[in-house]
Amino acid sequence: MEHIVIIGNGISGVTAARHIRKHSDKRITIISAETDHFFSRTALMYIYMGHMKYEHTKPYEDTFWKKNRIELKRGYVSKIASNKKQLLFSDGATMSYDKLVLAVGSTPNKFGWPGQDSIGVQGLYSFQDLQQLEETAPNNKVCKRAVVVGGGLIGIELAEMLSSRNIPVTFLVRESSFWNGVLPKGESEMINRHILKHHIDLRLSSNLKAINTTSDGKVSSVIIEETGEEINCDFVGLTAGVRPNIDFLRESELNLGRGIKVNRFLETNIPDVYAIGDCAEQMESQANRKPIEAVWYTGRMMGEVLAQTICGTKTAYRPGNWFNSAKFFDIEYQTYGQVSSERNRAAHEVHFHWKHRDDTKCITIAINQQSGEFLGINTFGIRMRHELMDRWLIEKRSAEYVLNHLSEANFDPEFYHRFEKDILKAYCTQFQKVSP
Amino acid sequence: MSNMQRDMSLTGGGPPTSLNSLQKLGTVIGLAGLAIIILAAFNTLPSPSLWLTISLTSLALGILLYAKGSYQNSTEGIKNDGVWFNSISSKGFWAWIAGLSLTGFYIVLYFFPQLLGLRSDGGNVGVIALFDPLSRLLSGNPASQWFVYGTLYTVAIFAFGIKFIWKYRHNRYEKLRTISVMFFQTAFAFLIPEFMARLNSETFSLPYYDLKNIWPLNYYNFEQYRIDSFISSGTVGMILLIFGVVSIFVITPILTYKYGKRWYCSWVCGCGGLAETVGDSFRQLSDKTERAWKVERWVVHSVLVFVIVMTTSVISSYLGNDPNRYWLTKDVFLLGVALLLSIVFAVIWVFKKHELKKDARYGALGYLLIILALIALHYSTGNTLFVFEAETLRSSYGFLIGAVFSGVIGTGFYPIFGSRVWCRFGCPMAAILGLQQRLFSKFRITTNGGQCISCGNCSTYCEMGIDVRAYAQKGENIVRASCVGCGICSAVCPRGVLKLENGPLEGRIDSKEVLLGNDVDLLNLLNKH
Known about the structure:
- The complex is a heterodimer.
- By secondary structure, chain A is α/β, with parallel strands linked by helices.
- Helices cover 23% and strands 26% of the residues of chain A.
- Chain B is flat, with a radius of gyration of 25 Å.
- Chains A and B meet through helix 7, strand 21 and helix 8 of A and helix 1, helix 8, helix 20, helix 22 and strand 2 of B.
């Protein structure tokens, strides 16, 4: 029986395994050095905040794997001998495979800051990171101040986590406004204000220069590049993005770039070796998509696609319309299609922006200036129906059509206040259209 | 390094769990209110009106101050920080203390009311005497243990209801729903029956009737003494009796068809009201395993069969045999029950068989055959209906289900098993509504395309123990018999994946092979039905 071995029990690897099982009787093994069972990485923050325990973050009961004949192996693969189709574990054990799926995920970026490897300095990606955080920053007696470096999705989550335990947080953001490489100005600035409302010491346009340590190697303070200011702290979170976790593959014959290079079929340069999820780098670029997309959904989608190929229906990875979501403290964010920040905006892309006076809800609709086509939407504090947004993008509806039918796409709970009329009115004012 | 870390955890590791000063003050004031009641149990207090006022006010005030301490400095949004660190909400020491105290209270209430000071001659002492002034004010009668319970129940739903509204102040669905349960508890369960008692006289005597308490939750509604008083109370009594029948056979199916069982379980019902307000801190404790689901299906439907058997038996025991005196004779009634059950079963079997799991089919068929066989046996051999005497059935149901299951276990163990143990495993009303919700209702929880990140907040905070995530991550709508539509899964979802909706029956349940977001051709290929 063909043996499919998957390294990594995150969303990509597990999705691939589940779908391979659905379509075949192949022997499947999932290897992980991180945990015995699959858990939701995105839920790590809720464990620290006390919303859930680790047990709750496991999407399948522990009996699921045996029932579905998916073998689980706890271990760290240190080497891949692709000529022998064999894996070597750090404890000396070996395992043979017929097909190998690399779903090894990411690791936090470090940019060579002095002191970046001190005790009390860490990223937030793995279960071990969470355990480390629990040691270093259990409460505000042990950790009197925390510094979070890097204004992205993990950075703001880490800031929220620490402040849930009443630990004062200084949040260093390199950009002049939070995540403004991705978010348009109006949204980014609203989130700045929301961060401040949560008593986070937000420092915009601030880079980390160095991390100082005590004589026993523990972090004691950080120095800010721009001002030279020293901030005393007991914890430094490095959240300046992630990169593919491929250092252990450097000596293999795999074609590596920033990630593991794959073609449209998620095949690497070595036959019968595939890469999916955060660690995969697409060689052929897809319209409007980055070569590496380290998000939950793309990992899942690659797992779905690769399972088809492995089970005999060779299928290319062609993601549909981009979508994503996040939560910034209390404000939920959803995005569908393409809404660019000022930095990345093409000349033809114009934006309609509406913000509620309570400063917690806003939407931005990206429009093709020439054709009037609806390019994408960002919503904050208002939920939208994925299915409908996706359909409108496929059908290349006009922005005006979308604005006139926005109420159909609303996904907020029943009895919530609705804003479609205000939004349409604002659109007509901004774009000098006659109100319907 | 390892030494240092161990030192660190010794010198105050672990997340913060202490109460802030306002929460402490609230706890002290609330407990003081409780202390007055406990004191009254041992020494009948002088000037009960004064002490009762002080006691109830302190209870409510304590809860409100605690809520203020919890939420006044926080922004609008989900407030689950530290739920699994705090002893009371994570089955810790204080949870066990609270669970044991509540259980003890229920045991005294149901089985030893004399310990509360109940005296049959009306000269109450102790706790019940403390509540006499309020009871006399409302109904003109002295208090009973049920009046004491009803008052505390109402105060609890009211005060914890305000706390709940404060906690979910960003969520209008939760606010309206909570105002609704607070209203139905105060007006329908507490005040109206007391005022109705005022109308009673020598010749006119309505039974105590909480109008929203529908059979079979209100399992005693058709007992002889109640039927007698309904009938003896003229038009009003007859209207109430007819309302009791109509509410289960007409009103309930219509509302459940349109809105799902939530219209009752989380908007109207008193048990649900307590679970949603007082029990809110314990909703995360429900068991989510598949095993628990299996147990739930068998137990709750067995209770339903039990209540049907018991009620049929009780009603038939007081019906006559002479059709000339009254058309509804024992025979007509028994055949009617058999016919009704057969029709309901046949309709489900013909139209919805494919939606039932194998064990559900066998279970339903088995239970139907048993009931029909028992009725047939009664006619062929002349034995007692259902083998046991009606009175035996009635009293054992009252003891096992009415008291032990719904009270002692259902509410007493809130801090250990979660807040909806009774509603999930025991309530026959929930079973009927659930059957209908699963098979003939417009209600569902819609999942939002591919946006689920499997985080597990929805499943964790489902008080009914539904593994919501299992559906959401498959892009499948949630259509479950047990869902009471509290809306918390949707509220705690960080990615806006869940929405409670009433919509067309078509396409209500649809599981997807590949989720939205992937290659359109692949989606079409694999999701074809």
